[in-house]
């Protein structure tokens, strides 16, 4: 039996914070409905205290979606929590996500506070949030750099105060996978009431390790992952939803499953990219333009003999209709022959050799040879 990993999508909150990615309420509702169709378990819809527009977005998303939990962010401040609670009043299942800095760096430099005062503030925030909703998630900001024993005390205290989920974010993308995994394990082993809450992981990608850290967190007991489509988010971004979901699907032996309809990954990726005006890099795992494109002769020959030689996923499983053989000056005869046959042209070996030479000359100049170029060549 596989264990269920809950997908908490923060595309519309942490993702939408990125400069230039802001959406109108109507656009946010469109994306939220697509995330619901994709199968995410929780949609973090926004940060209601931040602006009247964001308040309205959370309210409208709470009305528009029915299956996922709708979550609103707040700092551990009464006014923020009140705004989050009010914005969620129409949600079928609402969650307030409240929290405060947990590392000494944040406690000292951001709050000018002490560990003891932070602990008290966290407890009051969770209790106040529970007066609005039964489902309260607490985030221990910058947990990646926090003192581990303090993090355990904080986790224990907020669970006792009523938190149903505790988020251990690597806010600055600082941790290495084994280090982050060990932290999660330590929390499980040292927080006496940990089984009363779900431990959640929220990683940033400053060192390009967000997906690896998230998988390490899962391997060490976390059962909720906080992710965004295309990995958009502050600075170098958040963990990519599509990468974690497909890593768990491809590696079934790990024994985890999600509720995501993976055939919706590519269309939702494109929708988010277009609406947020944030292009997806060509070599992005799973959803990049080149994720299922083969261009060197050796790879094309191997792929045409059997797709498993160079593909670990079926493109249809992520909503891409087919793999691509891109014809360039690095392509071999096999790929050219295959493409010509798809266009209806079959040649004997000497003729194909002649066409191949002309193809290479053309490819050196044009870089990529498309079907129109090939028609020109054979004529
Ligand atoms: O990265 C972070 O710590 C956050 C929190 C607000 C959850 O985004
Ligand atoms: Zn974040």
- Overall, the morphology is elongated
Helix content: 40-55%
- What order do the helices and strands follow? EEHHEHEHEHHEHEHEHEHEHEHEHHH
Number of domains: 2
Low-confidence segments, ≥5 residues, pLDDT <50? none
The CATH C-level class name of the largest domain: Alpha Beta
Main beta-sheet strand count, sense and barrel state: 8 strands, parallel, barrel
Please, what is the average pLDDT? 97
Please name the CATH topology of the largest domain.
TIM Barrel
Number of strands: 12
Pathway: Amino-acid biosynthesis; L-leucine biosynthesis; L-leucine from 3-methyl-2-oxobutanoate: step 1/4
Keywords: Acyltransferase, Amino-acid biosynthesis, Branched-chain amino acid biosynthesis, Leucine biosynthesis, Manganese, Transferase
Family: Belongs to the alpha-IPM synthase/homocitrate synthase family. LeuA type 1 subfamily.
Organism: Rudanella paleaurantiibacter
List keywords for this structure.
binds 3-methyl-2-oxobutanoic acid; alpha/beta; TIM Barrel; 12 strands; 379 residues; 2 domains; manganese; eight-stranded parallel barrel; elongated; two-stranded parallel sheet; 15 helices; binds zinc ion
